[in-house]
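Task: complex structure prediction.
Instruction: return structure tokens for all chains below.
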Amino acid sequence: AQRVTQPEKLLSVFKGAPVELKCNYSYSGSPELFWYVQYSRQRLQLLLRHISRESIKGFTADLNKGETSFHLKKPFAQEEDSAMYYCALTRGYNQGGKLIFGQGTELSVKP
Amino acid sequence: DVKVTQSSRYLVKRTGEKVFLECVQDMDHENMFWYRQDPGLGLRLIYFSYDVKMKEKGDIPEGYSVSREKKERFSLILESASTNQTSMYLCASRGHMNTEAFFGQGTRLTVV
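Output:
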């Protein structure tokens, strides 16, 4: 069964501090992993996907198949990063199917 | 500009009522999803549809049904609303060849 676990409900850091939001998954095949973000009063939107291997707004995430993890990192947090972050999983590239989300982590960046 | 539109932002319904939540997308996407979003529980998949008239249960389908008669529209039905179905409901769509999912603005349903 597909499952995504985000162990932290709330992560609070000061501006300029490094951030790491944890995501672990369980899936028997080759998954596709995503991070979605929801800013206050806005729609949920894609932040980044593992197949793109890109940095968005200074965030990066590396898929570690050995540890079944896809942690989101940023070296220097900004106040505008405060939001709800969700890790998500689906079947491998372009195979469609269920899109499963984790419990979410609220990131609060203090000035 | 891609769009997923949910018919209502806020709904208040009575216990036992039949409730319809509507979602329309204009991107010709094959896949559509209904989630409920609750604090501490994240997004939980209720149902998804991978084609017209095709559906598959998600993790929490009990008390819900869905309908997809046209590609662009995916409806969530609460057959007999109960107070434990008070929640934020999110609709999303996703194409086969485009891996990004696009979300609606959400419907906050309160059952009294």
